[in-house]
Design goal:
single chain, alpha+beta, about 15% helix, globular
C-alpha cells in the first residue's frame, strides 16, 4: 500500500472579496509563526479583470491575487521541511 501525500494547500476556494481577505488577515495574525509559513496565492483567473491584450497564457505559472476570483492558502511546516540529520554520538 502506498503512502498518501498530504495536500499542498490547506484552504482553497476562499472568495477574493472583503470576507475572504479578512479571513486571510486573521489567519496570518493567529497562525503559529514559529512553526508555519503562510503563503497566499490566487486561484481561478477572473477574465473580467484582464486587460485587452492579456489572456491566460500570460499567467501559466499562476496569476496575481488581484486578477483571481478565489484565494488559496498554503501552510508550510517549518520543521517538517528541514532535512533530518541523525545525532552524532
Amino acid at each position: 500500500m502506498s503512502k498518501k501525500t498530504p495536500p499542498r494547500y490547506q484552504f482553497c476556494e476562499i472568495p477574493n472579496d472583503d470576507d475572504g481577505r479578512e479571513f486571510v488577515r486573521l489567519l496570518r495574525k493567529y497562525a503559529n509563526r514559529r512553526r508555519y509559513n503562510v503563503l497566499v496565492k490566487g486561484q481561478y483567473l477572473d477574465k473580467t479583470k484582464l486587460d485587452s491584450d492579456e489572456d491566460w497564457r500570460d499567467y501559466t505559472r499562476g496569476q496575481p491575487i488581484n486578477k483571481s476570483t478565489h484565494i488559496r492558502v498554503y501552510l508550510h511546516d517549518k520543521f517538517r521541511s528541514r532535512p533530518h540529520f541523525p545525532a552524532v554520538l
